[in-house]
Amino acid sequence: MVRNVFYSFHYIPDHWRASQIRNMGVVDGNKPTSDNDWESVKRGGDLAIQRWIDGQLNGRSCAVILIGANTANRKWINYEIENAWNEKMGVLGIYVHGLKDSAEMQSLKGNNPFDHFTVGSSRLSSIVRCYDPPFGVSTQIYNHIKINIGTWVEEAIEIRNLN
């Protein structure tokens, strides 16, 4: 079964990396937003951004947080994680620092964005899985994600159903 997921990522540095994962075709994701569309949403202020995110999350079964160098603890990433979890969606993280961007550059590994949340007395990072492809070459990382993302999404949904 192809799942319908929401991709969350730090737009400016990681949109190229995110587009690689979206275009894999393994899971259906939210429609990419152009720079102009995103600027239009941002001009509407925080309430407009919240409404846009809520609309994008609606009907999704899983939120896939694409973790770059500066993804953790960003205002809107946090909002997306919290809302996805509260809506009982599967949630998972994939480190994307090893994928090359449009300038053919890799980046530094970022912190776990789930460390900033608690569920009861546990950190969300002890419940939600983050996957860090065990390769240094961008093409190998891409292939690893493509082979495994469908399974990771199913596992995230199963974990959420248990918690």
Structural commentary:
This protein is an alpha/beta fold. It has one domain: Rossmann fold (3-Layer(aba) Sandwich). Helix content is 44%, strand content 15%. The chain has five helices and seven strands, in the order E-H-E-H-H-E-H-E-E-E-E-H. It has helices at 11-22, 35-43, 45-57, 75-86, 138-162, and strands spanning 4-8, 28-29, 62-67, 90-95, 118-119, 122-123, 130-131. The protein has a five-stranded parallel β-sheet with strand order 2-1-3-4-7. It has a two-stranded antiparallel sheet with strand order 5-6. Helix 4 links the parallel strand 3 and strand 4. The longest helix is centred in the last third of the chain and has 25 residues, at 138-162. The chain starts with a strand and ends with a helix. 32% of the residues are buried. The mean pLDDT is 92.
Topology:
Elements: E1 4-8, H1 11-22, E2 28-29, H2 35-43, H3 45-57, E3 62-67, H4 75-86, E4 90-95, E5 118-119, E6 122-123, E7 130-131, H5 138-162
Parallel strand pairs: 1-2, 1-3, 3-4, 4-7
Antiparallel strand pairs: 5-6
What would a concise description of this structure say?
The protein is of the alpha/beta class. The chain has 5 helices and 7 strands, in the order βαβααβαββββα.
Features:
Rossmann fold; alpha/beta; 163 residues; 7 strands; single chain; five-stranded parallel β-sheet; two-stranded antiparallel sheet
Shape: globular
Mean pLDDT, rounded to whole units?
92
Element order, helices and strands?
A: EHEHHEHEEEEH
Q: What is the CATH class designation?
A: Alpha Beta
Tell me how many strands there are. 7
Domain tally: 1
Number of helices: 5
Widest β-sheet, arrangement of strands: 2-1-3-4-7
Structural class: alpha/beta
Uncertain spans: none
Roughly how many Å is the radius of gyration? 15 Å
CATH architecture: 3-Layer(aba) Sandwich
Residue share in helices?
A: 40-55%
Major sheet: 5 strands, parallel
Give the DSSP E fraction (strand runs of 2 or more residues): 15-25%
